[in-house]
């Protein structure tokens, strides 16, 4: 474990690096307190998520934390792994998008204490600089919120520090800001044609099961046992190796991990399993985790046997309706990549903007190196565009009457 105490902050801030699997009960307790009082909730960076993740999948202790604390109180935290050189940084470096974090987390905003997120963010950026060598000279940060208080404080701290950032990604993924939706059950936020099609599917599905019903009358059951979710998974494509299924049953220690994470959150009333079960036939299940007043759509799955009736679409719409009715949350993050699931984005009325970037940590030559990488990237894209335009122009000239292509065709046909 590496640590360092700054001498110019009041009160003093101390910063350190630590492997998740090495933290004792006192540190985990401080970590949990930070997660519960974060300026912007991120369930994936709390101890009830990352401690079991490290226990099941991090035998080499590669999952580590940058920690900022003051007088025994944790102010900021960022998990990372060291990843190989890539086109964004030519050396091994820190990333919140390494093998473990990429597979199991969906939001990259750090935990910053809500009392003073700007101070916490400044402390985190200073910690990055302090451990520049250990972090490989840069840190890659994927899926940081672009419009939330935590993401805003972090980006402002980098700007105040004069850090060079290479922004290489950005998305607007599906979400629900419950205050913006008057009546989710009315599906008023859906295009009229989509809403009509969904209601028709609901009728046909329930007719096929033998209990005809309208979408408005369908409800979701609350499920207490995570083993039911795991059993249902075996009936879905996610358990099928021939289709490269991504289910827990295909992941070593996957079922145990899912159970541990769910139960850790459920013990504090922060986990929910919902199931669509008309006439006792399970068609869809979804698992949600909560942090603060934000709900995170963790995993869901639908019955393969009824796929033609789109039970997944029906289930997702019904979860929006039911979670809105229950109250207690301001935001539902779908945790879906918008480019991978474009048709599913339409099922949610709001958008959550995320941004991905690389930050150079050293004063010099790291800042200069990242600027050169960005410039080379711009140049490469410009050159690619010019080459593409030139090829298109050559094709257009060849296809004109009397052009090279026409002449060659005439000669070969003579």
UniProtKB/TrEMBL annotation:
Cited InterPro entries: BioF2-like_GNAT_dom (IPR038740)
Domain BioF2-like acetyltransferase: 193-329
Basic and acidic residues bias locations: 392-402
One Pfam family, short name: Acetyltransf_6
Residue ranges, annotated region (Disordered): 392-414
Protein name: GNAT family N-acetyltransferase
Source organism (scientific name): Oerskovia douganii
